[in-house]
C-alpha cells in the first residue's frame, strides 16, 4: 500500500500570502472592472524610473556581455557601486567582496535570515513590522518575537522593551529605520543605544535600509553600523534600488555584511537563483552612479504629500496619525473608530474596518493585522495628488 503524504509541505503550507500584495491585487481587480477604487495599498512609487536609468538598460539589452551568465554575487561594477553607496549613506567602508546582489530586497531579507538562523533561534522583531519578515524568519527555522511599540511611542521600541524580550535563544535583532509600515525613524541617539545593547549581548543585527534616502524635515536615518562601528562584524545591511529610484519592477536588491556571512549567502544564491538579470544590474549601476536630481524631486513630492495626508486623516475624529519622518506610509491608529456603527456596520477590528472602507467608499487600505496587532491601517502616499486627496475626502465623508 502506498504511503500517504501531504501534497504540500507543512513548511510551505504555513506561509501566509502577502497581505499588502493581496489587498493591492483586489484593488487593481476592482479598478480593471471599472470601479473607481482609490488604492493606498501598494508600497510602490507612482513615478516612472528616471530616464537615464532606462537608457542605460536599453543600451545593455543590445550588449552581448549581458546575454550570458555572470557571477552569482553580482556584476563587479555594481558591487563596487554598492560599496561606495554604503560608505556614503551608511558610513561603513566595505570591500565589494562583502556585497551580494539579489533579486530585489525580499531575496536579500530571505537570504539574510537563512544564512544566520538555525532551528529555534529567536529574532527580535520591532512591531509593527513589514509583513514578509516573520515569514522569512519562519522559513529559515527561526522564531519571530514581536516587540510592540504603539502610536504613543511613535512606533519606536526602546532598549528596555528589547531587553525584556531577549532570551538565551535570541540570536538576531531586526532593525528597520525608516520603517515600513509606519514611516518611523529612530534618532541617532536611539539608534546608538539599541546598537550598543545589541553589541553588549553579542547579537547579530539585520538592518533593512531600503528607505534610508526617503527622509523628511532634515532628518537623517543614521545606520546602526555608523552609530556603533563595533557592530559591523555582526551586521547585515539590506537595501535596494526599488523605492529610492522608482525601480520596484527591476528587482535589484543587495546584502552587505561580514565576509563569512556574504560568502555563505553567495553559496546559497548560487543554487537558488544564480545572477540577477544583467540588464537590471546595468540599470542599477546607472541609478547609483548617475545624477540624483530626480531622486530629490521624488523625495520632495513625498514630503509634501505626507503632510497633506496626515492633516486629512487627523481631521477625522477617532483617528490618530503620527507624522512619519521617512518612507512613504502613514500608519493611523484607528482604535477610536472601532465599536462604532458606520453605514450599518460595526467593525471591531481593523480588518473589518478596512473591508468596510473598501465596500462603502471604494478606498483600499491595509489593515494592521498584516503588520502586528489590530487597531491600525497602513496607507501609502506614493500615489498621485488627485487620488490622494479624493481618497481622504471619501474617508472624511464616511466617518463624519
UniProtKB/TrEMBL annotation:
Gene3D superfamilies in UniProt: Aspartate Aminotransferase, domain 1, Type I PLP-dependent aspartate aminotransferase-like (Major domain)
Cofactor(s) it depends on: pyridoxal 5'-phosphate
An example Gene Ontology molecular-function term: transaminase activity
EC numbers for this chain: 2.6.1.-
Keyword Transmembrane helix among record annotations: no
First-tier enzyme category under EC: transferase
Residues covered by the Aminotransferase class I/classII large domain: 37-394
Signal peptide: none
InterPro entries the UniProt entry points to: Aminotransferase_I/II_large, AspAT/PAT-like, NHTrfase_class1_PyrdxlP-BS, PyrdxlP-dep_Trfase, PyrdxlP-dep_Trfase_major, PyrdxlP-dep_Trfase_small
Keyword annotations of the record: Aminotransferase, Pyridoxal phosphate, Transferase
Recorded family membership: Belongs to the class-I pyridoxal-phosphate-dependent aminotransferase family.
Protein's name according to its UniProt entry: Aminotransferase
Amino acid at each position: 500500500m502506498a504511503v500517504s503524504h501531504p501534497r504540500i509541505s507543512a513548511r510551505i503550507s504555513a506561509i501566509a500570502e502577502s497581505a499588502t500584495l493581496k489587498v493591492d491585487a483586489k484593488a487593481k481587480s476592482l479598478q480593471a472592472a471599472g470601479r473607481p477604487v482609490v488604492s493606498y495599498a501598494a508600497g510602490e512609487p507612482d513615478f516612472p524610473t528616471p530616464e537615464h536609468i532606462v537608457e542605460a538598460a536599453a543600451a545593455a539589452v543590445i550588449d552581448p556581455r549581458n546575454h550570458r551568465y555572470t557571477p552569482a554575487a553580482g556584476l563587479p561594477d555594481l558591487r563596487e557601486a554598492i560599496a561606495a553607496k554604503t560608505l556614503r549613506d551608511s558610513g561603513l567602508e566595505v570591500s565589494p567582496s562583502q556585497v551580494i546582489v539579489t533579486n530585489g530586497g525580499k531575496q536579500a531579507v530571505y537570504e539574510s535570515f537563512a544564512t544566520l538562523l538555525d532551528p529555534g533561534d529567536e529574532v527580535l522583531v520591532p512591531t509593527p513590522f513589514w509583513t514578509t519578515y516573520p515569514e522569512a524568519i519562519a522559513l529559515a527555522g527561526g522564531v519571530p518575537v514581536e516587540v510592540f511599540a504603539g502610536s504613543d511611542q511613535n512606533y519606536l521600541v526602546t532598549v528596555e522593551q528589547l531587553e525584556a524580550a531577549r532570551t538565551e535563544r535570541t540570536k538576531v535583532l531586526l532593525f528597520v529605520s525608516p520603517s515600513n509600515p509606519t514611516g518611523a525613524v529612530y534618532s541617532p541617539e536611539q539608534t546608538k543605544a539599541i546598537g550598543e545593547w545589541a553589541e553588549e549581548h553579542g547579537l547579530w543585527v539585520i538592518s533593512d535600509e531600503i528607505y534610508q534616502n526617503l527622509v523628511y524635515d532634515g532628518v537623517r536615518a543614521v545606520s546602526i553600523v555608523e552609530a556603533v562601528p563595533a557592530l559591523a562584524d555582526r551586521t547585515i545591511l539590506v537595501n535596494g534600488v526599488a523605492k529610492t529610484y522608482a525601480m520596484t519592477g527591476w528587482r535589484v536588491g543587495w546584502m552587505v555584511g561580514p565576509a563569512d556571512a556574504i560568502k555563505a549567502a553567495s553559496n546559497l544564491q548560487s543554487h537558488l537563483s544564480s545572477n540577477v538579470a544583467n540588464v537590471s544590474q546595468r540599470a542599477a549601476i546607472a541609478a547609483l552612479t548617475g545624477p540624483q536630481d530626480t531622486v530629490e524631486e521624488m523625495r520632495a513630492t513625498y514630503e509634501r504629500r505626507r503632510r497633506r495626508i496626515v492633516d486629512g486623516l487627523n481631521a477625522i475624529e477617532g483617528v490618530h496619525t503620527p507624522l512619519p519622518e521617512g518612507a512613504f506610509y502613514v500608519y493611523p491608529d484607528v482604535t477610536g473608530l472601532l465599536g462604532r456603527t458606520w453605514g450599518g456596520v460595526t467593525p471591531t477590528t481593523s480588518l473589518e474596518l478596512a473591508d468596510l472602507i473598501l465596500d462603502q467608499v471604494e478606498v483600499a487600505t491595509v489593515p494592521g493585522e498584516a503588520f502586528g496587532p489590530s487597531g491600525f491601517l497602513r496607507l501609502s502616499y506614493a500615489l498621485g495628488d488627485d487620488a490622494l486627496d479624493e481618497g481622504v475626502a471619501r474617508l472624511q465623508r464616511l466617518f463624519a
